[in-house]
C-alpha cells in the first residue's frame, strides 16, 4: 500500500467536513455580524451611538456630533466532535459512507454555532407582548404579534436595509402559513413563497426562516425579529479536522474542532416574540 494513501484520505475527509459545514452546518451564522481570525480568548465589538445633526452660523465652527463609543466583549470557547473509523470498515464502505461521518461532525459543530447565536438572542430584553394590542403569551405567532415586533424595531430606528431577520420555530412557521399576507402570492410574489425549495422567504423587509433549536421555556417558544448587526459572532478557529491512527484500536480517530463565541451587541435590535406551543 502506498505510504501516502493516509494523507490523501485525511485531506479528502477534511475537505468533506468543511463542505458539509458550509452547506448545512449552521443556519444562523449568515444572519449575524461575524468576525473571523480572532486572536486570544475574547474579542470586542465596537458600538457607536446615534449622531445628531445641527445647523451652524455663517463662518462658525461645524458642530460636533459627540458620538458615544462603547464595546461589547465576546468570549470564545473551544468545541469538539470526535468519531472512530475502523480501518477495515473504511475499506469495506464506499465514499458515501465516509461522507456521512464527515457530515455528522460538521452538523454537530454547526448546531453548536447556532446554539451560541440563540443564547445571544436569549439575552435580549425587548418583548413583543402587549395585552392591550392583543398579543399575549397565551397565543401563538399571530399577525398582531409580528406587526408589534416590526413596529418596535422601527421605533428603535433599527435600519430597514435588508439586514433584518426573523427566526421562528416550526410550529410558528405553520402558524405563519395561515396568515394570508405571509403565504399568498398576491402579497409577496411567487418567487418569495416558502415552498420554493428552501424554508426561507422574505416578508416585511426581513428574511424569515424556521429553526428547530430555538429556546423553549415551559409552553413558550422564543422567536426573534432582529437586525444582523445586533448579534456578534466571533471565530478564532474555523472548523478543522484532525485524523490520527491508533494501532491498538486499528482505527482512525476523527476530531472535528472549532473555537467560536457569540454575544448580544445591541438589545434594541432584537425583539423576542414569545409564542405558546
How many DSSP E strands? 13
Helix content: 25-40%
N→C terminal distance:
58 Å
Q: Considering the protein shown, what is the CATH homologous superfamily of the largest domain?
A: Major capsid protein gp5
**CATH fold descriptor of the largest domain:** Major capsid protein gp5 fold
Q: What is the gist of this entry?
A:
The protein is an alpha+beta fold. It is 30% helix and 32% strand.
How is the secondary structure organized here?
Blueprint: H1 5-25, E1 33-35, E2 42-48, E3 69-75, E4 77-86, H2 87-92, H3 95-122, E5 126-127, H4 143-155, E6 164-168, H5 170-176, H6 180-183, H7 185-188, E7 201-203, E8 206-210, E9 216-217, E10 220-227, E11 231-246, E12 251-264, E13 270-276
Parallel strand pairs: 1-11, 5-13, 6-8
Antiparallel strand pairs: 2-3, 4-12, 6-10, 7-8, 9-10, 10-13, 11-12
Characterise this structure.
The protein is α+β, with helices and mostly antiparallel strands. The protein has 2 domains: 130 residues, 2-Layer Sandwich (Major capsid protein gp5 fold); 116 residues. Helices cover 30% and strands 32% of the residues. The chain contains 7 helices and 13 strands. The strands form 3 sheets. Strands 5, 6, 7, 8, 9, 10 and 13 form a 7-stranded mixed sheet that branches. A hairpin with a 2-residue loop joins strand 9 and strand 10. Helix 1 packs across helix 3. The longest helix has 28 residues. The protein is globular and about 80 Å long.
